Protein 1
Amino acid sequence: MARKPANKHSGETGSTVSAFPATKPRRARIEMSFEDQSLLGALFGQFDANLVQVENRLGVFISARGGQLQIEGPEDSVARARDTIQTMYDRLARGEDLDAGAIESLIAMSNEPTLEGIISGEDEAPPIMIRTRRKTIVPRSANQIPYMRQLAKDDIIFALGPAGTGKTYLAVAQAVSQLISGSVQRLILSRPAVEAGEKLGFLPGDMKEKVDPYLRPLYDALYDCMPPEQVERRLASGEIEIAPIAFMRGRTLADSFIILDEAQNTTREQMKMFLTRFGQNSRMVVCGDPRQVDIPGGGGQSGLADAVGLLEGVEGIAITRFTAADVVRHPIVGRIVEAYEGKAE
């Protein structure tokens, strides 16, 4: 992509702004420079792909020359592009990953007035992040911010919303972080094997092999946060347990981080049984999409909806409601969710 040379600008990382004569909408030009030139390759992306992504999403023009950028376009869009690129640079400076998905999320969050505060923590507060052996995870949507705070401090957390919003992934990441640090002794991941129903007995293999296909998303999140050899070792030792919800009956789960995924497919009785497994020094996260109930026969109320109605406002219990705007997969996933939700209303 042909790019116009930027004006010379020297000094530490920063920006200067000059506004064009007022038009409708007002236009602006912003110049940025960056102190650490070694980060610019990763910041701009191969063939300036990262800058093109920001341009296309925000409707601005970005020209790059050396360690300098010039951003032109509508005033509000230029300010958002500046904040997004600055946060991209800051992430790279902290040694964090930067890919197309992360950039898309930063662009979406640039509507928030405190984008940099979201990522690095405001005032003297610690940064909002989860560290695992494989990566450092920061919020990628507005509602992930309070959710990640809840994961660090509340006893029982309900995470409600559509697929792709990071409900389960962030819960698994926090669980892995606490297991590694020794804050908990076990990580227990569960979900109802609703899709199996009467067909479960006809699947080949032992019980683990029968239910594993329904627990695959939990395995995927786990392997993304921890080296495979550690996952296998901890599974073998019992430090990590992945099982259908029926296996939880009669147990008290102490010193554990417990996650229930696809909770909308539990019955009222199953949910009550699961929640009352809570033991000392434990944390429990219940994830699900109330709009995607697949309980066989369609009879009975979802245990997730029932529990949220009963427990909202109870001390020690937190609830985060995600929307299509929080989807952090490909942007088209968010548009698909919005289309289906609009049709359901």
Note: Residues 75-93 form the longest helix (19 residues).
Protein 2
Amino acid sequence: MANVKNLKKDINYVLGDIIEAVYLFEISTSGVPTPETNALIDEAIAAFDLLITKVNAKNVENKKSHFKQINVELEQTANQLIAKINEL
């Protein structure tokens, strides 16, 4: 597993790309935000905040498994958000 700095970058890039995809969807369809797209953006921001909080947790017994679990959560969250974007 890469270091904490790279994990934080991964979280930022992945969720940032998802938010960008929502904006591109808005531009390519109606040109204005909809309640559904706003909800997706809010969900991505909430996931970002949650994952960064978990990364910054200091009272972790096994750091290696903790960070692997965060990486798995990032992948699951990203897949769920992408599926929701595809449903729009």
Note: The mean pLDDT is 91.
